[in-house]
Every structure is written in C-alpha cells, then in structure tokens.
Amino acid sequence: MSQQPIVNRVANSALINIDLAEHPPTYEVTELDLAQFLDQGLVLREKDFRAQLSGLDTEPFQNAYVRVFCSTEAIVPSWAYQLVATTLSPYAVKVLVCDKSSFNVILWTDHIAGMDLSPYQNGLVLLKGCADEKIPQAAYAFLAQRLTPGVKKLMFGEACSFVPLHKN
To answer: Considering only CA atoms, which of 69, 66, 58 is closest in space to residue 27?
Structure first.
C-alpha cells in the first residue's frame, strides 16, 4: 500500500475566507451614564444638568462612539438624551442612546459599511461563522447583504461544513 501525501484541498482552493473575528471594529468606545447627573439619584433637574454638561470633560468622547444610558430606574426625560447628543456631537463620532446589544450591532454595521469589499469581487467567498459570540448575527447578515451583488458564490460556516447562501 503506497502512501499518498496529505493534500489540503481547502488551502489549494479558490475559496476566500472572511473571518469577522479577525477584522473587528477599531473605534474608540465610551459610555455616559446619566445616573451621575441625578439629584439624590432620582430626578434630573434641567438647570443643574445643563451646568454639569457644560463642565463635562470631553476628552473621553473625542473620536469615540458614545453609548448614553441611565443605570437606575429613574425616569429620564427625552430632552436630556437630546441635550447630551448635541453637547457631545462636536467631539464624538456617534452618540447613541441604546442598550449594549444594540450598541454592538451599530458598531459592527458601521464598521462593515466602511469595509473595502473589492478583494472579494467575483470570488468564492466563505463567511466564517459561529466562532465568536461577541459578533452579532446582524453583522453577518449585513456583510452577506453587502457581498451578495459582487461575489460568484457566498457561503457561511467552516470550509469543511458550509451552507451555500447565494450564487450569481
């Protein structure tokens, strides 16, 4: 019985892998909890809030994605979030009022929207998935949507076990 050399057919194929875990967003991220501005942890007083915002150190928000939230059960008026957004907009890339999960989706979709996908044009593309739970499914869906018009074939999963998604 002759021994045949082991050939890595995946490495020798025309398959182009995209692993989002290897291309994470590189944006600066920071958070602003409005609980720190509440009077006695309960009420947001407009005059005091405006004064505190005007004295806010803007350095942590420079060129960052900012998630604004309130960690307490206090009812924060809508204008407060808008005031924070207008105060931070000259410094931040984006000011978002949302939970952590939604914030993560927005980070990833903004990142993917800015990706150069020309290297995948007319290629056999495999979106490597299921490896990193920190990457939201919405990111994979958005990337698949962006890739669909320009690739020959789009697949999802691992090279040894993938699901075909689209064929041009």
So the answer is: 66
Q: Note the pLDDT tens digit of each residue in 40-56.
A: 889 999 999 999 999 99
Tokens of 76: 């924060």
Q: Which of 142, 141, 149 is nearest to 123 (CA)?
A: 149
**3-state class (DSSP) for residue 10:** coil
From residue 87, how far is each of 33, 55, 77, 144 by CA, in Å? 15, 11, 16, 36
Prediction pTM value: 0.84
- The token pair at 66 is 């900012």
CA–CA gap between residue 52 and residue 49 (Å, rounded):
5
Write out the two tokens for 147. 């890739």
